[in-house]
Design goal:
This protein has strands at about 10-15, 20-25, 30-40, 45-50, 50-60, 60-65, 70-75, 80, 90, 100-105, 115-120. The protein is mainly beta and about 120 residues long. It has a 6-stranded antiparallel sheet with strand order 1-2-3-10-5-8, with no helix packed on it. A 3-stranded antiparallel sheet has the order 7-6-9, with no helix packed on it.
Length: about 120
């Protein structure tokens, strides 16, 4: 099995709202793919990024997405595009896990490109 298809050693990164796994890429590969799992009734921080856009595809669960001042309900098969510098967050509004695949595209993809505006876990 080559390194592009090897998923046996994915590191899970725990967060107060759930966890994520990087499926492919790193901070400097121009794109990165993550599987993100949000626990019931938890939400990510309201945030933006200066160096990347994101594409989200919902694979299970039900969520509420904030894009700037707009709110959208998402379910399995929904997809969201988040341009660079757009404030955004997702909230699990159901009883089951909310799972989505995030593809990041940009010149730098590190976690330190997160600008937090609001956070339920005091990480602002």
């Amino acid at each position: 099995m080559n390194s592009e298809t090897n998923t046996e050693n994915l590191a899970i990164t725990n967060r107060p709202w759930g966890h994520y796994e990087t499926i492919h890429g790193d901070d400097y590969t121009s794109y990165k793919v993550k599987k993100i799992v949000v626990l019931p009734y938890k939400r990510l921080s309201l945030q933006s990024h200066n160096k990347r856009c994101e594409h989200w595809v919902i694979v299970s669960g039900k969520g509420k997405v904030q894009l700037d001042k707009d709110f959208l309900i998402v379910e399995k098969n929904s997809h969201i595009y988040i341009p660079v510098e757009t404030t955004h967050r997702i909230e699990n509004i159901g009883d089951e896990l909310l799972v989505f695949i995030e593809t990041q595209i940009g010149s730098y993809l590190g976690e330190d490109d997160i600008i937090r505006y609001e956070d339920d876990y005091n990480r602002v």
